[in-house]
Amino acid sequence: MPTRDLTKLSADILDVLVIGGGAHGATIAYHVSKAGYRTALVEKNDFCGATSASSLKILHGGLRYLQHLNIKRMRHSITARREMMGLAPYLVQPLACMMPLYGKGLRGKRVMQAALFLNDCIGWDRNDDLPPAIHLPRGHIVSEKQCRQIIPDIESEDLHGAGVWYDALAVDTERLILEYILGSIDHGAMAVNYAEAKAVAKGDDDLYQVTIQDRLNNETHQLKSRFIVNASGPWLEQSIQASKKKDTKQRWALALNIVSRKKIFTEYAVALEGHGKYEDKDAIIKRGKRLYFFVPWRGHTMIGTEYRESIADPDDLEVKREMIQNMVEEVNAIYPSAQLTYEDISFFHAGLLPMRSQSEENTIQMEKNSTFFSPEIPGFSRVLSVKGVKYTTAPHIAHEILKVIQKQIQPESGTVTAKKSPGIATQWNPVQLQCKGLLERKYGRRAVHILSFMENEEDSDIWIDEASSLLKAEVKYLLSEEMACKLADIVLRRTGLGTAEYPGRRVLEKLVNYMGGMLAWNEARKEQEIEDVLRRYAPLVLQES
Ligand SMILES: Cc1cc2nc3c(=O)[nH]c(=O)nc-3n(C[C@H](O)[C@H](O)[C@H](O)COP(=O)(O)OP(=O)(O)OC[C@H]3O[C@@H](n4cnc5c(N)ncnc54)[C@H](O)[C@@H]3O)c2cc1C
């Protein structure tokens, strides 16, 4: 059973300590522990609670990198995407993407046809070893008429059809990262949420000493590790002071998606050009406009991504009503028949990403490649800091980091913890059988473990909330096996209950009462837990279901 045991962790000498439980930290911990290193991961809040939860959920094969003629970057995306899809096939599905084509030039059919052909050649092995249900078909061109069937009110002047290609949609980005973290635990690693790395010092014994604060009880612990990977995303320069590159200060842009209750397009993710001018400085083939994606997801439509420079401390990241309103207006300008209103917005995704510069025309140039580096400070050669720009390519960065670690240290024998696989029954009673399919869709192969928590439950007493398909056994399992500590951990990061829309006070109360019974929460604590969840939806207009 995974435990948040920092005392046990500090008794051991680690090979590798990973700071940060987002896409980069999780994939690094997974690959490093799989290679036999004694590994631990610490995350100051909950796993996948920051930038990695705020993505448009597209696992890109990198079609757009053809604009930069960057085949290497495409290959990194394609192989990393395949790894993620193979690790948790139940969390991904093929996503048909459509882009309208205009005229005879760069936005026209011929160029797109060539791009789709190259995309399929470069991604020849994109489906290798994946279950057929999630294979990504080849791209193709559709006629103007077919394009109009999907995008009925598309601007028609000079419209010649549309290009269609396939990426993968990570239906639940938070669980996908958890799968990597649980996988690293299966490989002997230890992972602890609500554990913040406060300071790193080099000891005389050639080990790094890291002060960790347990944010649930404020206790401090000292960990010793031979190697450190700082994968703390936008906190990169704060979590280890030494991660600042000499004389440079990284600039960050706030990236924003909105989620609409209104289904704008249903079968396809549609890419439409924004109105403002945008020049991608690195592109060899310049389109002159930023693309906005409208992605069907969980019965809603995600729309993004918009960027603006942010000088905020990452801990103070705040999305104001006016930012969402601006985006609603931009969507209506791009596709007027969307007729989006502020009240249609049920959720938003916001995070900080590394930016390079802001041009005179005010267009933000984002960093294009994920990188990692050692701080230029004597004694810190076995510390690596990761600056990641894509969720999709995190496994690629993890492989590269593993190679660097392998050149510098060899694994000590033994592991931090040895996880015993739970003894799973193979015979299910009728109540368990009734829930098996539902749980498999939500938790893949972990469903059988959840079913074992139902052994003694009566048919009439299995639900926390039947309308939300939330079972008591799920919550027992998540508290016991996935380190869920707070109401928000379950609502926002382990069940998907509140990731597209506020689930309603009634459901939150039922859930908090059930959790409170198991964790001995008093009424004040329960109210605090609900308040914490509600904060995630500010400044939206909440609808009680
Ligand atoms: C709106 C938006 C849309 C996007 N869309 C896509 C997309 O469709 N496809 C795609 O591939 N990418 C997309 N991205 C990019 C992608 O989400 C990010 O590049 C990626 O998730 C960054 O992961 P990370 O692990 O580096 O950072 P994070 O996810 O931020 O993880 C860093 C973690 O470190 C923790 N931490 C910080 N300091 C400490 C400390 N001292 N001790 C312990 N823990 C600490 C933080 O709490 C955090 O959880 C999008 C990003 C945004 C914002």
Summarize the structure.
The chain is α+β, with helices and mostly antiparallel strands. The chain is built from 15 helices and 20 strands. It is 31% helix and 25% strand.
Write the layout of secondary structure elements.
Layout: H1 6-11, E1 13-19, H2 23-34, E2 39-42, E3 58-59, H3 71-87, E4 92-102, H4 109-122, E5 140-142, H5 144-150, E6 159-170, H6 173-186, E7 190-192, E8 195-202, E9 208-214, E10 220-230, H7 236-239, E11 251-260, E12 269-277, E13 289-297, E14 300-310, H8 321-334, E15 345-358, E16 364-366, E17 371-373, E18 383-387, H9 394-408, H10 430-443, H11 447-452, E19 463-465, E20 470-471, H12 472-481, H13 487-494, H14 505-519, H15 523-535
Parallel strand pairs: 1-2, 1-10, 2-7, 4-12, 10-18
Antiparallel strand pairs: 3-6, 4-6, 5-6, 8-9, 9-10, 11-14, 11-15, 12-13, 13-14, 15-16, 17-18, 19-20
Helix pairs in contact: 2-6, 2-9, 13-15, 14-15
The structure holds flavin-adenine dinucleotide.
Q: What are the bound molecules?
A: flavin-adenine dinucleotide
What radius of gyration results from the CA coordinates? 24 Å
Please give the CATH architecture of the largest domain: 2-Layer Sandwich
Q: How many domains in all?
A: 3
Q: How would you state the average pLDDT, rounded?
A: 92
Sheet of most strands: 10 strands, mixed
Net shape = globular
Alpha carbon gap, first and last residue: 36 Å
Structural class computed from helices and strand pairing: alpha+beta
By CATH, the superfamily of the largest domain comes out as D-Amino Acid Oxidase, subunit A, domain 2
| Relative strand content | 25-35%
User: According to CATH, what is the class of the largest domain?
Assistant: Alpha Beta
Q: Please tally the β strands and state the result.
A: 20
Q: Can you tell me the CATH topology of the largest domain?
A: D-Amino Acid Oxidase, Chain A, domain 2
Helix content: 25-40%
Q: Figure out the total of helices.
A: 15
- Low-confidence parts: none
